[in-house]
Amino acid sequence: MFVVKLEEYRKQIRSELDRVVDFWLKHSHDTLHGGFFTCIGRDGRVYDELKYVWLQGRQVWMYCRLYRTVDRFHRPEILEAAKAGGEFLKKHARVSGSSSPWKCAFCLTRDGKAVKIQRTIFSECFYVLAMDELSRVTGDQDMQTEAEQMMQQLIHWVRVDSSGLGRPQLPGDIPTNSMAVPMMLLCLVQQLTEGRGPEVVHKYEEVGFWCVQQILQHVQRGGTAILENVSLDGRELPGCHGRLQNPGHALEAGWFLLQYGAQHADEALLSTAINSFMELPYQRGWDKEHGGLFYFLDVDGHCPTQLEWSMKLWWPHCEALVAFLMAYSQTKKPELLQRFSDVYEYTFQQFPDAENGEWFGYLTREGKVVLDFKGGPYKGFFHVPRCLYMCEQILDNLLLNKE
């Protein structure tokens, strides 16, 4: 019965991944200017032609990863789309005349003119992901070199001098360790070192360890809570900013740490990843009345100031699926598979659009679709296909070794 259930999960996840990939292959490609449309309505129609650099990078990475590692996606149209997206990024993402020659735009016109720059590192991070993964499928060494050069700039901005991001240092602004930053750098370390030789692994060993220590600072209140923002020396910050919790982000950090702990045979880190970064946010963040994960919470129980705090968004549920299935595969503890099952039932009941394909991203607390587009400035071809891809891979391994 247990094996039958895993096979049922795999069958549905595999089918859903095929449908999601087909949706983006059909609706998102800009054959005139290159790159991808990401503002896509419920039925696949493009409702805005602006292109968001971080989503361009994510789609290139996802296409390349599927092409490189999954036989049924080793298809010419996927490779060509990834290459076209990579060329669009190389040509247009970096903004000439900005504070740094490595600074990327956040948003571009359809033909690649910069519209907006954010004073963060995330466009650049997904540029790294895209260039490195594309280098793996094309054999283009220059792309890998460019990814590593951008990585060095990111490390400099984060650990040495952030002035190149253009953010003014205001007297009342408390320097903050936001969990997204070390998480993203750790993701890049794992990307750049995957399958590479010992020289590359050694090059990023120290920064990977630093990222893990920075993430662990977010375990607060005597180990009873994960907070999204802490001080640079790992203390709780005052006010709403300091009390903020993001269950989906904590769960994503959990599986990042689980991967790192497994690679380094760190049993203590594996335990922390599951008990602190998965169990705590699930217990606190799961809506016991309506099901699903809250988007934001206040650790002291105040109403969060984010207007969308009680909504159910697609990506936290994607991260929860990956986290609990990966944790089960590492430990074989049945309670972790039950967590996966609970999230799975809610997610597959609420988010997929059976009529048009892909997933809705934004639901009310009660689970009703409130924004019906399939892509926008923050939702593209990434969290859903990455989740389905990773869960399929984990289930393949579990079923292969079921004896």
In words, what does this structure look like?
It is a single chain. The chain has 403 residues and is mostly helical. Helices cover 55% and strands 8% of the residues. The chain is built from 14 helices and 14 strands. Strands 3-4-5 form a 3-stranded antiparallel sheet. A 3-stranded antiparallel sheet has the order 12-13-14. It has a two-stranded antiparallel ribbon with strand order 1-2. It is globular, with a radius of gyration of 20 Å. It starts with a helix and ends with a helix.
Q: How many DSSP H or I helices? A: 14
Across the major sheet, the strand order is: 3-4-5
Radius of gyration: 20 Å
Strand content: 5-15%
For the termini, the CA-CA separation is 14 Å
Instruction: Give a count of the beta strands, DSSP E runs of length 2 or more.
Output: 14
